[in-house]
Recover the amino acids of this structure.
């Protein structure tokens, strides 16, 4: 799975107590939070001093993951983040492919004096790191954290806390085992996590059956009043303005997963979610089948991610962003015209 020399080198670094800093990506999802927290518990068991950092707030439905309350949030407490980085000897970058995915925190990470280690499953890994534990063939970074721990011969250190965190990674990054989930290895790892004593159905409930009333009503509103279906482009777009978000008392995480609803229609191969945030539009892209949203996000919307799930941003207003999106897609009309079959 990983380069044997990389494992040996990092294994040696971890054989003596270190001050370790873990960092998750901006607009955190279940994978980046779960993978960082699993690493936190594991590395502490190995005798290290560990601090977990995150650029901005994560959704409230991940608060229950053991250790979540200890994460230091940069946009709330930059001083504590900088102090941890100044003291740290090793930096683990979890679930992102380049430092700019940490937003305003990136310059501080770039200045980090110790070794930078990346554990990630995105495309287009940058060359800003010293040690690489990357594979795009894994469901999630959580899965790679499991592989990392196993490669270091430390499987015996895994307990319920790591298992809860890692199961959350795999469950959320596969849409509850509906995409990115065709590797037998994923299920072997899940079997091991369940054998450690977690209740998988309960984890699902904690993440997906904990909506606020506002969030459920926002979903209903988005689907009934903010859904555009561009049949000829096999595309469904949901757009939410700042006022829409305000009306439904938007909280971080309320729009996570919303984009997938567009893909649930037959003959729709691309789903896009546009959300107006401050002075820019956040974009989420999902596709089924061969259309690469990574390429779309990378070429036109300052973003990237995976072939079937990517994100990006637009600096123009909603109307102009929608117009640009339609124009770009018209030029890819043939690429979007296919039927997913067996
Ligand atoms: P989401 O749509 O859920 O925000 O993101 C989908 C995927 O694309 C995730 O794997 C995420 O890490 C990646 N992603 C989201 N936004 C960006 C971005 O602005 N730049 C890059 N390179 N990747 C992104
Ligand atoms: Mn991920």
């Amino acid at each position: 799975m990983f380069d044997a020399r990389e494992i040996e080198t990092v294994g040696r670094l971890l054989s003596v107590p270190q001050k370790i800093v873990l960092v998750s990506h901006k607009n955190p999802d279940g994978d980046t939070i779960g993978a960082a927290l699993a690493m936190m518990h594991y590395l502490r068991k190995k005798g290290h001093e560990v601090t977990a950092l995150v650029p901005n707030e994560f959704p409230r439905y991940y608060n229950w993951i053991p250790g979540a309350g200890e994460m230091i949030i940069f946009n709330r407490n930059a001083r504590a983040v900088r102090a941890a980085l100044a003291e740290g000897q090793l930096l683990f970058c979890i679930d992102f492919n380049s430092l700019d995915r940490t937003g305003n925190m990136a310059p501080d990470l770039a200045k980090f004096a110790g070794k930078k280690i990346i554990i990630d499953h995105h495309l287009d890994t940058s060359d800003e790191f010293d040690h690489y534990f990357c594979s795009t063939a894994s469901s999630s970074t959580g899965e790679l954290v499991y592989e990392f721990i196993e490669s270091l011969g430390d499987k015996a250190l895994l307990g319920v806390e790591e298992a809860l965190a890692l199961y959350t990674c795999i469950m959320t990054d596969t849409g509850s085992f509906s995409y990115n989930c065709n590797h037998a290895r994923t299920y072997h790892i899940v079997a091991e996590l369940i054998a450690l004593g977690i209740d998988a159905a309960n984890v699902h409930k904690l993440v997906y059956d904990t909506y606020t009333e506002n969030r459920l009503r926002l979903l209903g509103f988005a689907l009934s009043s903010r859904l555009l279906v561009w049949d000829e482009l096999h595309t469904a777009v949901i757009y939410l303005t700042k006022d829409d978000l305000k009306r439904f008392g938007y909280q971080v995480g309320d729009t996570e997963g919303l984009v997938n609803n567009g893909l649930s229609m037959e003959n729709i191969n691309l789903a896009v979610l546009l959300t107006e945030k401050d002075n820019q539009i956040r974009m989420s892209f999902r596709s089924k089948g061969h259309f690469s949203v990574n390429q779309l996000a990378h070429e036109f919307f300052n973003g990237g991610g995976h072939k079937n799930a990517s994100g990006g941003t637009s600096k123009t207003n909603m109307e102009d962003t929608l117009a640009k999106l339609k124009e770009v897609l018209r030029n890819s009309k043939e690429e979007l015209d296919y039927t997913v079959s067996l």
Remarks:
- The chain has a mean pLDDT of 98.
- Residues 31, 95, 121, 140-141, 173 surround manganese (II) ion (ligand 2) (CB under 6 Å).
- The first strand starts at residue 19 and ends at 24.
- Residues 139 and 186 are 7 Å apart (CA to CA).
